[in-house]
Design goal:
Two copies of one chain form a homodimer. With 316 residues, chain A is of the alpha/beta class. Chain A is 30% helix and 15% strand.
Chain lengths: 316, 316
């Protein structure tokens, strides 16, 4: 099977991929895919490529969330399938829980105070929420959401999750997204791992934020625009919500720093923990990524079904 | 049963305790215990009290860790038992995990950078450790340690724990403390919930820190002096350890701020997350405390065994 790695791949990465797939794949890398390429790995796939690569049958994005443009692009080519990787689901779920707990325990402001010799947080119950016995609502019951749910349950939280539509075999606490209006008022913590699709954009709008309990915690490791930027900022700035831990944003860096992640000053709020869309990264993650990519390619070469096919009608 | 609440109890607390125990306890509060007091609740118990209260049979500290002085004091009085509360075990275990994850994911420095418009942490795998698949070693397998172990397992960590001596019914991964030298080299994360006793003081000394893997994470929600202050600081400052999350310290506030928690500048290290011994506190925790205290007193009044008796020979 002829595989083309598009864009920039470090020499060591190329070497690792070639070694791990040598029994079933031959590779090319770079900006000029050969005319007989069968699988495209990477970003930058365009209509022009589709026209020039008659034997192409699969596009693989070696990360979790393909862009909507790519999903559209692939959908237009008959017979072409789109695949992604869940190699960073553990890392991303861990980041979600790290943010939840940092917010619940006021870790950042307490650390800042201690660095100034200020023990004011000692014995102040009002700086922390007990998670045990509270309720978590997980938005998106995929590879990441399932892991978040399991960790929250181990802390004695009640857990519910929503997904696009409930599936056979789902636990009883997994609900279709249509039940959000009933579930939001129970959510002491709302944890989002949703991809960005036409259906998830703005899913948590002003009305939905208003349905959350007073002083709920929101965590987002999915995509920023799932939340209404204006209503969400307002709920945090006014103290209507307890706080938020946000790894994903509405604006991404372009140009020189400082680069603010929203048109609102989330970065000035004490009750928000901000991280730079790094949830999926951790030391050693590339090892896991290459292992999972090699497994996916092996299944493609054998004509087997993969667990990583993206449904173009759903966008994930 | 005549119960004396020693020291300062807010009027609402007195009212709550009286209400919750009205079927079996009559209360006095303040600095002057009546001569017929049977149970002492609070701190400040002295030899003089022991001499003046002939009917006293139990001392209850309404928190987790009685001081060594109190343990000694009670041990000298024949027939007197000592009891503590585990009401804050969930909150403290949550703080331990919050610290573990904040350290593993560099939450504090990443948040600080984002507040300056700096996205440098994006896509930088070297700022985070994946906990899934790594090994946690829990020091102290009591109410807190057991909860920490459960949460770590839910994240896909391998977990071992040590306690003073293994007991019948303990899971296979719970070991006597004598096995520390074999276990420490496996511990990617070392989480301490140990009380301070003559046996735990300095338990993790220079040699033990040296046995930890390169770039291990240490979390302490037990008592500071379980760790050798000098060797521990050195291992963090030199980068021998990945980092530490510390809620308990060697020095506590006395006098005016700034009040530093150690004779070494832990508060200047980027790889340490500092909190002011607040793990056991959270909103609503007093409700849990009063509930658990009332249950304990009911068992004492009925002459039943309690799960909260402190063994004076062990000190916890």
């Amino acid at each position: 099977m002829r595989v083309h790695g598009a864009g920039g791949w470090a020499p060591e990465a190329q070497e690792t991929l070639r070694r791990r797939t040598r029994r079933f794949a031959s590779w090319t890398f770079g900006d000029e895919p050969p005319a007989d390429a069968e699988v495209w790995v990477g970003s930058g796939f365009t209509a022009e490529h589709a026209a020039r690569l008659p034997r192409l049958r699969a596009v693989v994005v070696p990360w979790a969330g393909p862009s909507r443009e790519l999903v559209e692009q692939v959908r237009r080519v008959p017979g072409l399938t789109l695949h992604n990787l869940h190699h960073n689901a553990d890392a991303t779920a861990e980041m979600a829980v790290a943010l939840l707990m940092a917010v619940a325990k006021s870790v950042v402001p307490r650390d800042r105070a201690m660095r100034q010799g200020d023990w004011g947080g000692r014995g102040r119950a009002s700086s922390a929420l007990l998670l045990h016995g509270s309720t978590a609502l997980v938005l998106g019951y995929g590879a990441i959401g399932g892991r978040i749910a399991r960790i929250c349950r181990s802390m004695g939280m009640r857990v519910a999750a929503v997904r696009r539509e409930a599936r056979t075999g789902d636990p009883a606490w997994v609900h279709p997204v249509s039940r959000l209006p009933e579930l939001l008022p129970t959510a002491d913590a709302l944890l989002c791992s949703l991809p960005l699709t036409s259906e998830t954009e703005g899913l948590i709008g002003r009305r939905e934020i208003g349905l959350l309990p007073e002083r709920a915690i929101v965590v987002n490791v999915g995509r920023g625009p799932v939340f209404d930027e204006d209503a969400f900022f307002e709920a945090l700035a006014t103290g209507r919500l307890w706080g938020a831990g946000l790894d994903v944003w509405w604006r991404y860096p372009s140009g020189e720093p400082p680069q603010w992640p929203s048109r609102h000053p989330f970065h000035e709020l004490e009750n928000v923990v901000l991280t730079p869309h790094c949830g999926g990264w951790a030391e050693g993650i590339d090892e896991v990524r290459f292992r999972d990519l090699a497994r996916l390619l092996r299944r493609l070469s054998a004509g087997e079904r993969t667990a990583n096919a993206v449904d173009p009608d759903r966008g994930y």
